[in-house]
Structures are given as structure tokens and as C-alpha cells.
Amino acid sequence: MVHLYKNRLQTYAQKRNLGLPIYSCEINGPSHARCFKSRVKIDDKTYETLDSFTTLKEAEHAAAKVAFESLSPDETQEDEGLYKSLLQELAQKEGFPVPVYDTAKSGPFHIPTFVSTVDIGGKPFQGQKARTKKEAEMNAAKAAYSSFPERKESNGTCHFDFSFSSLC
């Protein structure tokens, strides 16, 4: 899920009191078939993509992924907590009401199990069982966010290059 990396890189920088990531790009190709390569500078180091992409957004997220994975190899497993924020942003963008979570608790008192459902756009999404209410809500948010087809990754990589370029 490349689209998570700009957010993750910014959070990484803020938690470590680093300057915010600074993105720059190179545009290649004619006006009707642009390709973008991006780099990001964080903590006085620059990271860049090897591939070109059909959109600037994809190129910046790819550069953020390179930087995040280089800076934080131990934290590269998915941060499920991002999904609640991403889902809220998606709901706002799509004009849906704020996501509403409903959590059910079951099991013995000393080892409860939680299952959350989130309603977005009138459709309920249930997450996997969890040991805490917070984790259950994150699982529901991930299920809802992942179900939106326009959020799934596309391979927008360009495989051609032209001799002229400009900076963004």
C-alpha cells in the first residue's frame, strides 16, 4: 500500500523532531504523456525513486516509501492505526458522514474479545476479532478502507523517457 508512505514518513519525522520531508520531482515526456520521478529530502538525506510514474502523487508516495524503508527498517510492517485516519479522510473526500464504529465485546471477563463494525456511506464493514476495542476498531477501518477499489494500488509505472525535463 504505497499510498500510506507519505503519511508514515511525515509521522516518522515528527516523532523524531526532524524537519518535515521536502519533495521535488522531475517531469519527463510530452504534455500528453507525462512521467514523473520524485525525490524526498529528510534529515539532510535525499531518497529517490528508480521508476517513473504516470502521476506526481504516485511518484511522491514511491519516494516516501524508499525513504521510510531506509530510515526505519524495523517499522516497515503495516501500522494499522493509520487506517482510522485514512478512512476519515476518505469519508470526507467522498462526502460521507463521519465513520461510526460499533464494537461488541464477548468472551470471559479476563480475556475478552472485541469485534467492531464501521458504517461508511450507509454500508457496514466488519473487522477481524481483536484483544482490545481500539485494535478492533482499527481492523474495521482497515476492512472498510481496503474495500474501496479506487484506493487499491495500480501500476502506473512509465517505461519510456524523453531527453527534456523540468523541475516541479
From TrEMBL:
Entries under PROSITE patterns matching the protein: DS_RBD
Lineage summary: Eukaryota, Viridiplantae, Streptophyta, Embryophyta, Tracheophyta
Record InterPro entries: dsRBD_dom
Record-given protein name: DRBM domain-containing protein
GO molecular function: RNA binding
One Pfam short name: dsrm
SMART domains tied to this protein: DSRM
Keywords of the record: Repeat, RNA-binding
Domain of life: Eukaryota
Annotated TM spans: none
Location of the DRBM domain: 4-73, 82-150
